[in-house]
Write a structure and sequence with these properties.
CATH topology of the largest domain: Transferase(Phosphotransferase), domain 1
Number of strands: 16
GO molecular function: ATP binding; protein kinase activity
InterPro entries: CK1_Ser-Thr_kinase, Kinase-like_dom_sf, Prot_kinase_dom, Protein_kinase_ATP_BS
CATH superfamily of the largest domain: Transferase(Phosphotransferase) domain 1
Shape: globular
Protein name: Protein kinase domain-containing protein
Radius of gyration: 20 Å
Pfam family, one: Pkinase
Organism: Caenorhabditis angaria
CATH architecture of the largest domain: Orthogonal Bundle
Distance between the termini: 35 Å
Bound molecules: adenosine-5'-diphosphate, magnesium ion
Order of helices and strands: EEEEEHEEHHEEEEEEEHHHHHHHHEEH
Length: about 400
């Protein structure tokens, strides 16, 4: 099994120019690459990078492919550019996307007792569920749902679900009928995900379906409300699985009752079952009404909340201080949070279309550009909302059914 955090990553320095984007600082690092805060003119963005070791195992290429398909959804970052560079004689993939604030994992750890208030926990969990709904509607599984893969996007007050390198399509066209159908389960799919949050089926290396993303979302939700999971300090994946079996419904009995209802639904889902999203979204709506939680209310980490001044306003109270990390320390290194993403079979994502091999001019600081694509960096976050939604949905669907 390969541990994701052991992978060498391109290290860029503050002020360095990478393909026209200036590095401002490092935001995080985990699986296969590092993520940097970059700027270009008025645009502030996030740049994710990985070395191209083998053509067959490029998670960033898959991530770009999926993110392009998800441009219609407000719960996914805008994709500004995706390129292949030669940097210090090595091939490097980069992608540039919307810049988020701290991931939800860090925002939670900054709270007293490391849990959000009920109001914030409920609304964040609801947003992740909506993001998963959008992804599943597009025929795609995430396979590593957790709070460190959700960023808080201040301009839209939304969460963005990122880290799409392990995504996989679960629909296939039936050659006989030409209709879409769920893929057959593979006998052993290898382990993909994060031990702390994955379903018990993923522990057993069973092929994952929509239910597995929902299990990971349920555990993430329980941690938002409770501050920890019973296996938070357990490193042995086998023992984590045993504890998950043992605790069964007790964990969710400690969350609002609507979560418990959803848990009861998720627990009876089979590998290829279609989750009852209308029911789950309605349960959340009921919960928000019952607990009198309103959209205009501030989240725990926003100015005006009871916690803001004490825990969030002063960045020095952040346990992984952003101001002192620039470029040397990995902020959200998975190892330091016990939330290591692991994959025993990296190459089980669908082959993504090749990044076009177009040699471009104007490479920055020793980086030779090999690919130039996608949106102009001037695109605004809110550009053509409705049109993009319709066009994107169409395109995503066409790709899934193989018309494109
Ligand atoms: N768009 C983004 N905006 C801000 N921070 C980000 C963004 N994408 C990733 N990060 C930060 O980088 C970390 C690692 O990125 P992620 O995409 O999860 O890659 P990995 O595969 O390395 O886990 C995240 O946990 C988060 O802290
Ligand atoms: Mg991640």
């Amino acid at each position: 099994m390969s541990s994701s955090s052991s992978c060498a990553k391109p290290e860029f320095q503050s002020g360095q120019d990478v393909s026209g984007y200036t590095i401002v600082g490092k935001l995080g690092s985990g699986g296969f690459g590092a993520v940097y805060h970059v700027k270009k003119d008025a645009l502030q963005a996030a740049l994710k990078t990985e070395f191209v070791v083998k053509e067959s195992s490029q998670t960033l290429k898959n991530e770009v492919h999926i993110l392009r398909l998800m441009q219609w959804s407000p719960h996914f970052c805008r994709l500004y550019a995706a390129k292949r560079l030669t940097w210090q004689d090595q091939k490097v993939n980069i992608m540039v996307m919307s810049l988020c604030g701290r991931p939800l994992s860090r925002l939670r750890r900054m709270m007293p007792q490391r849990h959000f208030t009920r109001e914030t926990a409920a609304r964040l969990s609801f947003m992740i569920l909506k993001a998963l709904h959008d992804l599943h509607q597009s025929g795609i599984l995430h396979r590593d749902v957790k709070a460190s893969n959700c960023g808080w996007h201040e301009p839209t007050r939304q969460i963005m679900l990122f880290d799409l390198g392990f995504c996989r399509k679960f629909l296939d066209k039936d050659p006989k009928t030409g209709k879409l159908k769920h893929r057959e389960a593979r006998k052993s799919a290898g382990f993909i995900g994060t031990s702390k949050f994955c379903s018990v089926y993923a522990h057993d290396e069973k092929d994952q379906g929509r239910r597995d993303d929902l299990w990971a979302w349920l555990y993430t939700t329980a941690e938002f409300f409770l501050g920890s999971l019973p296996w938070s300090n357990e490193d042995n994946s086998h023992l984590v699985s045993t504890q998950k079996h043992k605790i069964s419904n007790k964990l969710f009995l400690r969350c609002p009752r609507e979560i418990y209802t959803i848990f009861n639904h998720v627990k009876q889902l089979k590998f290829d079952s279609c989750p009852d999203y209308p029911m789950m979204l309605k349960e959340f709506q009921n919960m928000l009404t019952r607990l009198q939680i309103f959209d205009e209310e501030v989240f725990d980490f926003e100015p005006g909340s009871a916690y803001y001044e004490q825990y969030y306003a002063n960045r020095q109270t952040d346990s992984e201080c952003e101001d002192c990390q620039m470029l040397t320390t990995d902020l959200e290194t998975s190892a330091s949070t016990g939330e290591q993403t692991k994959a025993s079979r990296i190459v089980d994502v669908d082959p993504a279309p090749a990044l076009n091999e177009v040699v471009g001019a104007g490479a920055g600081a020793g980086a030779q550009e090999a690919v130039i694509t996608l949106n102009s960096s001037k695109s605004s976050e809110k550009d053509g909302g409705v049109q993009r939604l319709a066009a994107g949905l169409n395109r995503a669907f066409n790709r899934i059914i193989g018309n494109e």
